[in-house]
Amino acid sequence: MGIVANGTVLYDYWRSSASYRVRIALNLVGEDYRSVPVDLLARAHRAPEHLARNPQGLVPVLDIDGERLTQSLAIVEYLAETRTAGLLLPADAIGRQRVRALSHAIAMDIHPVCNLGVVAHVMASATDGEAVRLAWMQKFIGEGLAAFERLLDHPSTGSFCHGESPSMADICLVPQLYNARRWQVDLSCCPRLVAIDARCAEIDAFARAHPDRTKP
After folding, report:
1. Which of 3, 120, 136, 159 is most deeply buried (CB count within 10 A of its CB)?
2. Cα angle at 60 between 57 and 64, to 5 degrees?
């Protein structure tokens, strides 16, 4: 979908994991952008204006290079291909496969069942919706991250999820750990994830993308 080129614009929500991923990636590749908030709690993502940007009614949406892009991992891969080869994805095929697999374990397995629409539906059928939401988040985020911790028991794991520099896998991990802490998930079984998250927090590109730095 073509757009009028007018700089890079990110339509996002400050607490959205998918938006958080793209903010990190844009910062890592040094792409200047303007943020346009889409308030999910106010259902701005279902307004005609946003549905015209993305018929799925999801964030983020990125206007870049005269094009309109959706889906956070597809956006990250576009940035990897057009901005800095080898930075967000490894140069070798097996390395790229591993980083994609790690990224998908979070973005396609943990994240979807904990998304706003899914959890709201679960809460609507419960007597104590808040308690059900907390238990749901702790179960699916906790189990998913515990498995991710085991996936890092691999010779290619280094100071980060893959090797000695952050990749798309770390871009996915950090927002998920933010959510885990928000929902009081027990991370005692995930010491490697916690250590990687701490290293990422020391990198300016990650720090500037943090929800606390970007909320309205």
Report:
1. 136
2. 120
**Do 112 and 81 lie in a common domain?**
no
pTM: 0.93
**Helix (DSSP H) and strand (DSSP E) numbers for the chain:** 11, 4
Residue 109 shares a structural domain with residue 81? no
Q: Which residue stretches of the chain are H helix?
A: 17-29, 48-53, 72-82, 93-104, 111-113, 116-124, 129-151, 168-182, 191-201, 204-209, 211-214
Please answer whether residues 15 and 183 qualify as being in contact, where contact means their C-beta atoms are separated by less than 8 angstroms.
Answer: no
CA separation for the pair 36, 62 (Å, rounded):
10
Do residues 111 and 17 touch, judged by C-beta distance below 8 A?
yes
What's the domain count of the chain? 2
